[in-house]
């Protein structure tokens, strides 16, 4: 049934309820897609609600990567504490360093690109 639906035909075969709900919210304008660029230039389309915070985006990235690894049989465990300590998200050269701030406060809109940037160590 999902394959025949024009709104949901892009979803993978082992789709979760959360993915269906976020796709529907996207179609009704209640959510937006943020393209997250990794260091290897791979782009992940992450769906978050319109009033999402930086923490919501980080959690959505974690869910996206976890589902991707489950489907592909990749790495079983990722230390997200290490990832967020080593990298930060950046938009337009500005660090997204306040988890409680909304993405709108940083000027992030639908289909904008956010990148992972390695943190510099303080000596």
From TrEMBL:
Pfam families: Ubiquitin_4. Residues 32-123 form the Ubiquitin-like domain. GO terms for cellular component: U12-type spliceosomal complex. CDD domains: Ubl_SNRNP25. Transmembrane segments: none annotated. InterPro entries: SNRNP25, SNRNP25_ubiquitin, Ubiquitin-like_dom, Ubiquitin-like_domsf. GO terms for biological process: mRNA splicing, via spliceosome. SUPFAM superfamilies: Ubiquitin-like (SSF54236). PANTHER family: U11/U12 SMALL NUCLEAR RIBONUCLEOPROTEIN 25 KDA PROTEIN (PTHR14942), U11_U12 SMALL NUCLEAR RIBONUCLEOPROTEIN 25 KDA PROTEIN (PTHR14942:SF0). This is Ubiquitin-like domain-containing protein. It comes from Pyxicephalus adspersus (African bullfrog).
